[in-house]
Each structure stands twice: as C-alpha cells, then as structure tokens.
Design a protein that fits this description.
The protein is of the alpha/beta class. Helix content is 37%, strand content 22%. The protein is elongated.
Length: 434
C-alpha cells in the first residue's frame, strides 16, 4: 500500500533497539510512533517524553488516537512503526521488564463481576507474579489506597460504578509499578464519584507517575502538572496548563468599561500606541465598552497605556479585564486547527491522485475526427439497411464481444440474444454514420 514506504522509512530512521540512552529524568520515551488500521492512520509520527514524578493529562477529541497510543505504550497493541521505552526497556523488545513498570486501567475495567474485590485482586496479583505474604500485603495496601475496605468482600456485580472503577485502579497498583496509565477513569461516573476518583488520582501522583485521559477539561486542569493534546494522531501541544493558556491568549485583547462617551473613548484610544484594533459599544449613562487588541507580546503594557491615557483626560476606567484563553479555548483552537490542516492535506492528496502521470494518456473530452472518404466508401459497402451485419475483421476493429441489437447473422455466424462474437462495427458505424 502507498503508505508503507514512508512509514518504514521513518521507522528505519529511529535508533535501533537498545541503542537509546535515557535522557535526564525521562521515564517513558515515545519515538516516532505510527499506527495504521488498514489504510487508516490512527497515530501519525508521535513523539514525546514523560518525566518521573508528575501527573499527565492526555487530551484529544474522539478518534484522535488517545486509546490507541495508550494501548501501544502498555504493550497491549503493536505499532506499525516507532518504539516505546519504559525506563529504557523497549516495550516490544523487552516486554517483561517494561510491563512490570506499568499499571494499566483500560477504558472498560477488566473485572470478573462474580468475584469479590479481594478475590479478584488475588487473581490479578498472582498473574503478576506475586505470592505469599507479599501478595497479601499488597492487596491490603491497594484496598486501603483506593478506599475499598467497606466492600472488599462484596461481589463486584453488586458494586456501584464508582467502586468498580476503584477496583480497576487497585488492580493497576498491584506490583508497585512506577507509572500508572488510566484511560478515562471517570467516564460514566456521577459528580460525587468524579470528585472521589479525582482525589484518588491526586494522591497516587504524589508517589508515582500518572498518565490519564479524560474529556473533562476542568478535571485535567485541576489535577495535572503537564498536559498533552493530540489531534488527528499528532501531538499539537505539550506543556503546563498555565503556559498553554498564556501561549494561546486570545490575540492580546483587553476589555474595558470607560466613563466616557463612545466618540470620546474612540478619540482617546486613537492616541494609544500599539493598538491593532478597537471595537466600541455604548453602555448607557455616558459610558462605553471597548475591546482593544494589540500586537505587543506583553498585554500588560497595553493595560498600563490605556489606564494613563484615560486618566490624562480625566476619564475613569470602571472595569478593565485582560482576556486570556482557558484550557477549553486552547483545546478547541488547537484541535480545530489540526482538523482543518488534515482536511486541506487530504484534499491536496486527492487532487494529486486525480492528475494523470502522463498527459498523453488523457482521453476525456477528445472528439474523434470525421471519417475519411475511404471509411465512407467502406460504410456504403457494409450497408445494413436490411438488418444484416457486414463481416468485419475484429483485429482491425480492436474490440471483441460487441453487442449489436436486432441483428441478422451473416452466413457462417452464430448469434445468440443479439451478441455477435468478435465483431465490431466499422469506424463509420461507430461514429453514427450507419
């Protein structure tokens, strides 16, 4: 398929397994990750590093590749290209040591609902290689950390959604992994349960590295030290929440309510430097609301200039607000830009595929020239006014198995349902000169 050469080229460009050195405090390194489902690309050359000791939020619209990336990072899904290092262990080349460092809760918790939390955790612990006193101690520890003590001997089928999520998180904690990966752990929970799980994730983040995906932006903003945003399978942002908001502030805009008429406010604003745009609206009682945009990097320089400009004219500023982007604005802006870019790229590829490689092969809208005199003579000799077909050399005609309706066969020809094998009308007849 067309995508394979480029994919393999990027994969070959990555360092060979075991050749990489851990960079600083990086616990996880994702390098040039690519994943195709058939010819659909789910992850597109994704690279990032996860440092130890932080809580990371993984954001993206539906279909962005979040769950696919998490499944590859945990070794549950193969990659088309690229690699994932967990504490310098390749998840594909060294799955044993790498997976021992990971605790994973998929979007649908893998629970056996006929068992109690204690029974289920014993089964999972044994599957992870825990035995004896170490197993019993860890079961007690994770039950205590996740608040499952009141229901530890109650069947999972009888537990609420919130408690089931706690059981799923508890199984991820068994084995004392360095990193916990949670795929939408609060999905389907009520507001009180969301708060409980949020507090639990905060607590886990004090001793472990936590990566979790969510569609609740306020939740990610409240919990995370770092945020990754992916769209169309690509990484579009990776930073601290505050820096993301600062870097994507809405075009340096200041909103103010001035104790001045609309015309007077416009006159004052005309004397302020570095103003790139002004929108004014009357607010009644001799007041005006202005939205002022600037091309300056420091929005507070504009705020200061506005304050002194109105003060010099003896006009009070009753309100002044610097408009900043919140995480929702950042998320929508980045994902919409990525979607638009992907759409433009797809259109360009479609146009490129539509163009023929050799212009000489273009045959659309080509008008066949008029018949020559010899062809007209041939047509006269092959007059089929009586319904018969003249015997034409199929090789000269260039077409076989032509269908001619209402045809009477010539001597020696066999016709069934109007089909004359290896016969094509001469040029004049193909041009409508019959």
């Amino acid at each position: 398929m067309a995508y394979l050469p480029d994919t393999l080229e990027r994969f070959d460009a990555a360092p060979a397994a075991g050749a990489a050195e851990r960079k600083g405090d990086d616990l996880i390194s994702v390098e040039h990750l690519v994943k195709y489902y058939g010819e659909v690309m789910a992850v597109d050359d994704l690279s990032f590093e996860i440092e130890e000791g932080h809580v990371y939020g993984f954001l993206g619209p539906n279909g962005a590749g979040k769950s696919t990336t998490m499944n590859i990072m945990t070794g549950c899904l193969s990659a088309t290209a690229g690699r994932v290092l967990i504490d310098n262990h390749d998840i594909f080349e060294e799955p044993g040591p790498a997976k021992q460092l990971i605790g994973y809760l998929p979007e649908q918790p893998p629970l056996y609902v006929s068992e109690t939390p204690a029974e289920y955790l014993k089964f999972v612990g044994e599957a992870k290689g825990l035995r004896g006193e170490r197993l019993r101690r860890q079961i007690d520890e994770v039950i205590g950390q996740t608040g499952l003590e009141p229901v530890r001997r109650r069947r999972i089928a009888a537990l609420s959604k919130g408690y089931r999520q706690r059981v799923g998180i508890a199984q991820a904690l068994l084995g004392d992994p360095k990193v916990i990966i949670l795929d939408e752990p609060t999905i389907g929970l009520d507001p009180l349960q969301i708060i409980e799980i949020r507090d639990l994730i905060k607590e886990l983040g004090r001793r472990r590295t936590v990566i979790f995906s969510s569609h609740i932006l306020s939740e990610v903003q409240a919990i995370c030290d770092r945020i990754l945003i992916i769209a169309q399978g690509k990484l579009v942002a990776f930073d601290e929440p505050g820096k993301l908001e600062q870097d994507h502030r809405a075009a340096g805009e200041v909103r103010l309510l001035a104790e001045a008429g609309e015309d007077e406010a416009r006159e004052i604003l005309a004397g302020v430097e570095h103003v790139s745009g002004v929108t004014l609206e009357p607010a009644g009682e001799g007041r005006a609301v202005a939205r002022v945009r600037t091309d300056q990097d420091d929005i507070h320089d504009l705020s200061r200039a506005l304050f002194f400009a109105f003060a010099a004219r003896g006009k009070a500023l009753l309100e002044m607000t610097v408009k900043t982007a919140n995480l929702e604005d950042v998320f929508i802006g980045l994902t919409e830009s990525a979607a638009a870019a992907a759409e433009d790229e797809a259109e360009a590829e479609a146009e490129a595929e539509a163009e023929p490689d050799d212009p000489a092969e273009v045959t659309d809208d080509v008008t066949e020239p008029d018949a020559t005199d010899d062809e007209r003579d041939e047509a006269d000799e092959c007059d089929i006014g009586d319904g018969s077909v003249c015997h034409t050399d199929a090789a000269d005609a260039g077409v076989t198995n032509g269908t001619v309706p209402n045809v009477t066969p010539t001597d020696g020809e066999s016709v069934t349902n109007g089909t004359v094998p290896n016969v094509t009308p001469p040029m004049s007849r193909r041009m409508g000169r019959v």
